[in-house]
Prior knowledge:
By secondary structure, this protein is mainly alpha-helical. Helices cover 75% and strands 0% of the residues. The longest helix has 24 residues, at 30-53.
Amino acid sequence: MRSRRTTPSDIAASLLAVKLLVQGMKDAMPTLQGELRRDACERIDDIISDLGSLKR
């Protein structure tokens, strides 16, 4: 659990990490692609949760 609030820059960094993960999938072996896909989906779920917790 995080001890500080999520900021827009934290979310941007997370999105960049997912983008790089997805870009790396194209050259990976099929079994590794599946693992990378699952990891990317979990990270996207975390980002969606973080977006929901932002106060405007």
